[in-house]
Amino acid sequence: MDRAFIFDVFGTLVDWRQGIADAAREAFGCRGLSVDPYAFADHWRACYDPAMERVRSGSRGYVPLDLLHRENLDQTLTAMGIADAFDEAARNALNRAWECLPPWPDVHQGMDRLRPFGLLAPCSNASIALSARLARFAGLRWDAVLGAEIAQDYKPRPEVYLAAARAFGLGPEQVVMVAAHNRDLAAARAAGLGTAFFARPTEYGPGQDRDLKPEEDWDLVARDLADLAGQVARRS
Hints:
DNA polymerase, domain 1, 11 helices, hydrolase, (S)-2-haloacid dehalogenase, HAD_sf, 2-HAD
């Protein structure tokens, strides 16, 4: 195939907030802790970009996202005042919640409809190990697992998008980045890729105030992944 669609995963294809909150609720219930699982999920996720920025800036060498998540978990447990309730084994188990996130309802149909028109792969900040296990859990059928680890850097650095294109033997103009995040698409466009957007208006909860609409004239704008696949089919 001479075309590929590469995807942001956390937020675009899977509901990280609900998945992490569900795992936290179970862990807290076993320990008799009264902590808001959504606040816990939000805090853990808020550590995500600052941790990656240390790698992007060069102040830290590349390490896989699994390790950053684990370090961020320690920070979050401390911030929530519940660090003493989780030993090393319990922390490692909770960290694996990122491998067990539910897909949004339109994802399977959308991927199946899109598959005839190009190769499909994640272009996620997740490690290959994390991406593969999450794909098994969420039923994401990929042609390859690409993203940050093959580039040894984190989005939105251009090399992450360009490495994905090279891995498929394609030029950036033959690859479409699919994301529910305008910042991700802006970086992909700057690297020469095509762009496709649909919103996930509850990714950050009911008070979400970002990525509710396209902020640039992206190549494709859809209601969801199934609608995006329909648009691609009509244009092909």
